[in-house]
From TrEMBL:
Domain SAICAR synthetase/ADE2 N-terminal: 7-235
Species for this entry: Paralimibaculum aggregatum
Transmembrane domains' residue ranges: none
NCBIfam families: purC
First-level EC class: ligase
The protein, known as: Phosphoribosylaminoimidazole-succinocarboxamide synthase
Pathway: Purine metabolism; IMP biosynthesis via de novo pathway; 5-amino-1-(5-phospho-D-ribosyl)imidazole-4-carboxamide from 5-amino-1-(5-phospho-D-ribosyl)imidazole-4-carboxylate: step 1/2
Keywords assigned by UniProt, alphabetized: ATP-binding, Ligase, Nucleotide-binding, Purine biosynthesis
Family from the record: Belongs to the SAICAR synthetase family.
Length: 242
């Protein structure tokens, strides 16, 4: 069988040309990286778990009218997605202080934030994804002010929904990152969610024990990453295969 044309290879995923125009195939690798790829490992089964978990979350978001690029899962490691023009920003939403926020501002990990905080980072590996403000985003033409307003409202809707979804299975959504892209209906532009939503891109803590069920297990050498991700999948009602 002819191999599909590779469009882009990232740290955890590969994009191939899709079967129809306007589609891509998103392949989930087992590669795990942290600290801008200074730490690297291959973790058997991570890609399969993230493919399933991201499918589950994107499908649920579609169900409540939050537009995203997911079309359908193709197999254990691949999903068909709608092509979009990626906006070069990582959008982080935080409910509880952790990670870089705790480090930068000296706020203890686990401190509840008075309201969700949104941060933007410019997607550029060479620069280490620096944090930017709305001023930078507009000045450098990465997105218009209206786009930023749309991205913020999308991110907050995702936060509300996912916080409830995870709380229902005993997990606190501490923070997460999303990426967004543009699609065009004629002259009309819409912003949709892209990339993935998985334990690679969220901080997920067990409500009762505080146990970390996310990529911090890898970043901080806290045990088996696949055990943690499998536990998230199990609680979300996702069967081991399918
Ligand atoms: O490292 P930091 O505390 O800024 O991360 C905030 C959230 O964004 C975490 O859930 C982390 O997993 C996610 N993130 C990500 N990809 C990055 C940076 C952060 O998924 N490149």
């Amino acid at each position: 069988m002819a191999r599909r044309r590779l469009v882009y290879e990232g740290k955890a995923k590969i994009l191939y040309e899709g079967p129809e125009p306007g589609t891509y195939v998103q392949y989930f690798k087992d590669d795990a990286t942290a600290f801008n790829a200074e730490k690297f490992d291959v973790i058997d089964g991570k890609g399969v778990l993230n493919n399933r978990i991201s499918e589950h979350i994107m499908t649920a978001l579609t169900g409540i009218g939050i537009p995203n690029h997911f079309i359908r899962r193709i197999n254990m490691r691949e999903q068909l997605i709608r092509a979009c023009e990626i906006i070069p920003l990582e959008v982080v939403v935080r409910n509880v202080a952790a990670g870089s926020l705790s480090k930068r501002l000296g706020i203890d990990e686990g401190t509840a934030l008075p309201r969700p905080i949104i941060e933007f980072y410019y997607k550029d590996d060479k620069l280490g994804d620096p944090m930017v403000t709305e001023e930078h985003i507009v000045a450098f033409n990465w997105a218009a002010q209206q786009d930023i307003d749309d991205i913020i409202s999308l991110a907050l809707r995702v936060n509300d929904f996912l916080s409830g979804l995870f709380l229902g299975v005993g997990i606190k959504l501490v923070d997460f990152k999303v990426e967004t892209g543009r699609i065009w209906d004629g002259d009309f532009q819409r912003i949709i969610l892209a990339d993935e939503i998985s334990p690679d891109s969220c901080r997920l803590w067990d409500v009762k024990t505080g146990q970390k069920l996310d990529k911090d297990v890898f970043r901080r050498d806290l045990g088996s990453l696949t055990d943690a991700y499998s536990e998230v999948a199990r609680r979300l009602g996702i069967l081991p295969e399918g």
